[in-house]
Amino acid sequence: MNRRKVLAALGAISGGAAIASGTGAFTSVEADRDVAVEVANDSTAYLSLNAIGSNAPYTTTNNGQLGIDLTGSNTTGAGGSGVNTDAVTVFQEMFEVQNQGTQDIEVEITPLTFVDTDSGNTLIVLIVPQTGFPSVTLSPGGAETYSLVVDVFPDGTSPDIEISDTMTVTGEAP
Prior knowledge:
Blueprint: H1 3-21, E1 47-51, E2 59-62, E3 65-68, E4 88-99, E5 105-110, E6 113-118, E7 121-129, E8 135-138, E9 143-154, E10 168-172
Antiparallel strand pairs: 1-4, 2-3, 4-9, 5-8, 5-10, 6-7, 7-9
């Protein structure tokens, strides 16, 4: 057999084998898979929010969601009805955010500052993370503790000012 016929035969066999076995490339695939999602309370979610320490009574849990309540409606059993006027009040270690997931996450709370003014009075609430500012990276099982600093400047006629707002806790893989 001459050399050209042998080369042509080998080429044909190789090409046929490639067609028969395929190249592994595809244009599209559609596959149905099961998805299961369960909603958990703040304390048992992948990003856990828990009241801690001696200031835990100043937190509330409503429908499984952690909240902070420094108003007269949350007397904590001791009879107080709010923060002092013309004073800085510190609530150390009020709550913690814990990573109960499986990967590192970057945690951030926004906003960290709340401000309200009325009749010349100013109320400022600052959320202070223990180690990371303004965000912290938490490994699985890791937690960040947050404190509150409340400052009231009474320059007007009535100290009856209050803040009723929402903080957003974000956990995102870096």
